[in-house]
Amino acid sequence: MPITLNGSGTITGYTPTTISGSLSADKMPSGSVIQYKSGLIPDINNRSSVNSSTYGSTGIHVDITPTNANNKIIIDGRVAQYHDNSGITHEFRIHNGTSLNSDQEQGVAAGQDNAWHMVNIHYEQIAGTTNEMTFTLYHAVSSGSGTAYTGWSSAGGGSTTYYNWQYFNAIEVVV
Length: 175
What we know:
This protein is mainly β. The protein has one domain (about 30-155, about 170-175): Sandwich (Jelly Rolls). It has one helix and twelve strands; from the N terminus they run E-E-E-H-E-E-E-E-E-E-E-E-E. Strands 3, 4, 6, 9, 11 and 12 form a six-stranded antiparallel β-sheet that branches. Strands 5-10-7-8 form a four-stranded antiparallel β-sheet, with no helix packed on it. It starts with a strand and ends with a strand.
């Protein structure tokens, strides 16, 4: 017997085991990914700089509208960064639309100057709402002096039509 995915979201031709015949987010088991959103290429390739310990926006952001306020939102990213002085520590934090989370350092780059490096970014929180949420990457120079840069459009492939090895994603997961 063939299995048919109907336009209404139902499936015919199979016997469900743990999910009912209707594939809806509220019937998905814990750990299921409900949605995956990617930041826009021009935002991710945007170049920003900072030369103080005051956190400033990089312009890199992603929007997501949670389907359930109890679900977890995971921000996963990787950005190109550069600094012009080996004494700099370049730190990153996520602004979740309400506040800049000072409890979690999302990524830190320190050491070599005059070279681009990739920094992994990771952040998690319970949605707490079903309204659209915007997660923005902020950065600061937490020690040393000089200028730090993030997301330069010429890093990687040098094109604003490609991610240039950078990404910034929001993932909604059932808790």
